[in-house]
Design goal:
The chain is α/β, with parallel strands linked by helices and 402 residues long. It is built from eleven helices and 17 strands. β11 and β12 form a beta hairpin.
Length: 402
Amino acid sequence: MRLLHTSDWHLGRTLHRADLREAQVAFLDSLVDTVRAEQVDVVVVAGDVYDRAIPPLDAVMLCGEALLRLRDTGARVVVVSGNHDSACRLGFGSGLVDAAGVHLRTRPAAVAEPLLVADDDGPVAIYAVPYLEPDAVRSELPPDPAGSATAGNEPLRGHAGVLGRATDCIRADLATRGSPRSVVLAHAWVGGGATSDSERDITVGGVGGVPAATFAGFTYTALGHLHAPQTLAPDLRYSGSPLPYSFSEADHRKGCWLVDLDAKGLAGVSLVPAPQFRPLSVLRGTLADLLGSRAYDGRENHFVSVTLTDPAHPGEAMSRLRSRFPHVLVLSWEPVGRQHDGRDYRTRLRGLDDAAIAAEFVEHVRGTPPTAGERTLVYRALEAGRLDEQECPPRATTLQVA
């Protein structure tokens, strides 16, 4: 049996307000072509189909078209909800679309109810574990398969607790079926996985609290949530997002996992690269260097994040950069050699008159103190404002009482 493991489409998302719909369409086109060319039997989507719980209409339409096209290849499609998805919205009508071969799995109570898909070597049990928010799903999960009088009443602690209960229930169900080959989809933060800036923190204190051992014993576990394709164990992998959604992902090699199962279990896994819509580049240097150096040839068509290091803030920096890099999305300024004296803003302004405060502001923003002419201009503006206030005192108001 051949599976394609993908996740974290985040349909409807932008990159620093740059529209990514064209890139998402290109990825889904490529995904359908791969499923057809590689004769994939089952496509598994491990959550975060959408970027928001209430996605924009064009994202919903794009998703619906993609699922229909994937099913038209002859493959079955299994989708779980992620932490960005609304489980209720994504799972609406799941009972109806099941019959068409698209299986939307969003209910915690059904984690131990597999989709059984057979090939020449027998059945494969596919279990779908949606994102489990501990406080919201404790009462919805199946009971403790150990069946002890006390264990079922104990609160499940954090993500490790609820996912541990879910996988224990899956193992118990597998045992009743003679332990066939098994595939588990889960949207979770598993310890050992490398993060990026574009993932929403789903654990208290930012600590990945789900050990990899939670998924021990399954033929293959298809994970979603982290955006870099990565292998935690040969049978435990993140497919990552198909597009970079932050500049921290500039060096990611995006794609999906092609997974082969034989009679004995996992036979092989290979990465199918995703199409690259527009590369990402992170550039740092002075404005003159970025505009003139040949070292940046070939980056003109990239999405670009720039950090300027000029001692003084250059005027019209963004428009000048876009003359060479039209797709600059992020611009920051970190002047070389500039050091903060450690005082907070209130302390720095204590005892200063208005003119001195204005001069401090100019130096803070631009990196150089105002010139004598600029100081004179600021003084005249403040003086004109003071005189205007004296000539036009605030008009008194009379409170009318009915």
